[in-house]
Amino acid sequence: MTSTKEPSFRESVDLMFNRAASLMDLPPGLEQKIRVCNATYTVRFGVRLRGEIHTFTGYRSVHSEHMEPVKGGIRYALAVNQDEVEALAALMTYKCALVETPFGGSKGGLCIDPRKYEEHEMEQITRRFAYELAKRDLINPSQNVPAPDMGTGEREMAWMADQYARMNTTDINARACVTGKPLNAGGIAGRVEATGRGIQYALREFFRHPEDIAKAGMSGTLDGKRVVVQGLGNVGYHAAKFLAQEDGSRIVGIIEWDGALYNPDGIDVEAVRSWIVKHGGVKDYPDATHSANGSSVLEADCDILIPAALEGVINLDNADRIKAPLIIEAANGPVTAGADEVLRKKGTVIIPDMYANAGGVTVSYFEWVKNLSHIRFGRMQRRQEEARHELIVSELERLDRYLGDAWSMSPDFKAKYLKGADELELVRSGLDDTMRIAYQSMREVWHSRDDVEDLRTAAYIVAIDRVAKSYRAKGL
Ligand code: GLU
User: Does 149 sit in the ligand 1 pocket, CB within 6 Å?
Assistant: First the structure.
């Protein structure tokens, strides 16, 4: 956690915003309009549980409505507070602008420890919270579309969507009121792992640019790179798993709430995940060294550090001891403004949160579009595509026969080529494209301007510029 000498999370986001805005030519009034949070709704509601009334406090903050609906997750955690929700809502505005999802920024939170409640109690609490938000259009397909965040997932989204549908029985677009729903309740293939996939695609894109790799003092590809990941939740788990299984990276450190695991030869992510599910934490996992002081492993020798847990974990207390030359912010706000400055001076390259973890909202966008169009992606064209491919394959087969031993089709070409893309493949393709293009827009600013030292400032400049253009188009 950040020490008292550091600004709060929201102030930290504002400081980073100001740094970028000072390099832009915005009228001061517009700059302020973009920075401030438009509104935060606080609700306190009671739910009767175990024979007693329990009061819960929840928030939904709308940072910017330059585009509607506004978008952002709902977090369930005891530490949720207004400052945090507003910081996260601001990041959503910039994130959506950077990856070109047509949304304003919002975020919600409920102060609760979800582990303390049974499933039916969580349903009662979630439905009540959803009712309070939907009543004020803070859940609404055209106004405000929540999604999962820390402590929430498909289950909570299904309850919220159903609650909205019960309250709006004639709304044909009711399913588009939240994203991150299970597939059978209007969700989309690939949403659960989307943020982790986005981290992988972001790193792949980074490693396509030798100049950028050199800025981090590295060389080569993701293959063999030593990775430390903090938090093996939905985002950290998928990112680590994909990097290990598909890119040849070596996961040398895993940090969890009850300490950290370290093994320079690599850790089996899947095995640790199963261990956590069974035992509740990483302690006593056999194939790695455990240290009780988990955050010490943030400072371990590695190539890529992936903070995928809470905000403020890299701060003025530990920034100068971080050895990783490349940090990719899978969590929102894991590096404080103060630490950011220390790391920048050291030459650490940081792939910033608003870009790095945008995979979630990107696939949420696809889900929302799917819900509004009332049809699964690929349903119309898949078989037609396959039939056209069949034509080419049969011609190639004719050639194959004609040429005899001189040429033949590669063994798996036919099967691979014939298969039309299903929804999951289309989602991955859309996500990959989004992550590549957004990275390129950031690096363009990073490399073309002498006054832009880092990717974060570049990301803010791209995002602020887009939000400003959209306000101007509205006549503001
Ligand atoms: N909670 C995620 C985020 O912080 C996802 C938001 C969304 O899908 O709307 O980006």
Answer: yes
Ligand 1 atom with the shortest distance to the CA of 364:
8
- Whether 107 is a known active-site residue: answer yes
- pTM of the shown model: 0.96
The residue nearest atom 9 of ligand 1, judged by CA position, is 72
Residue of 5, 33, 95, 107 with catalytic role: 107
What is the separation, in whole angstroms, between the first and last Cα of the chain? 39
Q: Which of 475, 441, 432 lies closest to 201 in space, CA to CA?
A: 432
Q: From the CB of 360, is ligand 1 less than 6 Å away? A: yes
**pLDDT per position as a tens digit, 204-219:** 999 999 999 999 999 9
Cβ neighbours of residue 405 closer than 8 Å, sequence gap 6 or more: none
CATH second-level architecture of 217-347? 3-Layer(aba) Sandwich (3.40)
Question: pLDDT under 50 in the chain at which residues?
Answer: none
Q: Do domains 1-186+371-378+421-442+452-476 and 217-347 have the same CATH topology?
A: yes
CATH 3.40.50.10860 fits 1-186+371-378+421-442+452-476, yes or no: yes
Q: How do 326-328 and 349-351 pair as beta strands?
A: parallel
